[in-house]
Design a protein that fits this description.
Number of helices: 12
CATH topology of the largest domain: TIM Barrel
Structural class: alpha/beta
Largest sheet: 8 strands, parallel, barrel
Strand content: 5-15%
CATH architecture of the largest domain: Alpha-Beta Barrel
Order of helices and strands: HEHEHHEHEHEHHEHEEHHH
Mean pLDDT: 97
CATH superfamily of the largest domain: Phosphoenolpyruvate-binding domains
CATH class of the largest domain: Alpha Beta
Bound molecules: 3-methyl-2-oxobutanoic acid
Helix content: 40-55%
Number of strands: 8
Oligomer: single chain
Number of domains: 2
Shape: elongated
Length: about 280
């Protein structure tokens, strides 16, 4: 059954947890969809995981459309959310609507996601008026890494916690259909989840959010390097891939691959006529 904003909203009401994971290409999206995730996020984290940048700031609309369209082709049942990249919506409400529209038309997303608090209420109102569902993203918002001075847990003191709660309520009132909370203390995320009627999606925001999201290379140990505290490795796909590639190299060098069953046949009479 196709996941929609209606089924995801119903899951919140029925206290049934839902699951989101990132994907950036057709093959991976198909695996995630067949595994049964409720939502797939084409995150601008693709800047790091797919394109090798050190942050998300260089990701373009063309990058997002290219990857979103590929993921859409591999997705049947999951609800597809695509990130609006840095400077595709911050510049004006007009830009926000035009670029959200491109992610829907060309990227075939079911919803767009944008980072930021109450300052983006006009943008969310305008995008939702165009019948485009918007997922908001608060807490640690990686596009603001330079303004934050690094990747830090958000909402830890009274003023910051109140601001996050107020932001969440303002974003819901503006029409957001869901809210991602990244690196928010678990007790605060629980309160925000209880105060909102739309689903919350946590990443480093504790177990009480309505849904969880992880970057797939993190949960499958494919990315290497730094592992954030909130990541759990569920399978070591990186090791399986490295072993597979090493076996391919070994057998090719030894001459045991390709074997007879991998070869195409030709009649000997044809071969004889070649000499
Ligand atoms: O870009 C991304 O993958 C994200 C998740 C970390 C929520 O925004």
């Amino acid at each position: 059954m196709k996941n929609t904003i209606v089924t995801l909203q119903k899951s919140k009401l029925e206290h049934e947890k839902t699951v989101m994971v990132t994907a950036y290409d057709y093959t991976t999206a198909k695996i995630m969809d067949e595994a049964g995730v409720n939502m797939i996020l084409v995150g601008d984290s693709l800047g790091m995981t797919m394109l090798g940048y050190e942050d998300t700031l260089s990701v373009t609309m063309e990058d997002m459309i290219h990857h979103s369209a590929a993921v859409a082709r591999g997705t049947k049942e999951a609800f597809l959310v695509t990130d609006m990249p840095f400077m595709s919506y911050q510049t004006s409400v007009y830009d926000a609507v035009v670029n959200a529209g491109r992610l829907m038309k060309e990227g075939r997303a079911n919803a767009v996601k944008l980072e930021g608090g109450a300052e983006f209420v006009p943008h969310i109102e305008a995008i939702t008026k165009a019948s485009i569902p918007v997922v908001a993203h608060i807490g640690l918002t990686p596009q603001s890494v330079n303004a934050f001075g690094g990747f830090k847990v958000q909402g830890k003191d009274e003023a910051a916690a109140k601001k996050l709660l107020e932001d969440a309520k303002a974003l819901e009132a503006a029409g957001a259909c869901m809210i991602v909370m990244e690196c928010v203390p678990a007790k605060l995320a629980k309160i925000i989840t209880q105060e909102l009627s739309i689903p919350t999606i946590g990443i480093g925001a504790g177990p009480d959010c309505d849904a969880q999201v992880l970057v797939y290379q993190d949960l499958l140990a494919m990315y290497g390097g730094f592992k954030p505290k909130f990541v759990k490795v569920f399978a070591d796909a990186g090791a399986v891939m490295r072993e597979g590639i090493k076996a391919y190299i070994r057998e090719t060098k030894k001459g045991t691959f390709p074997a007879e069953e991998h070869c195409f046949k030709i009649d000997d009479s044809v071969i004889e006529k070649l000499y």
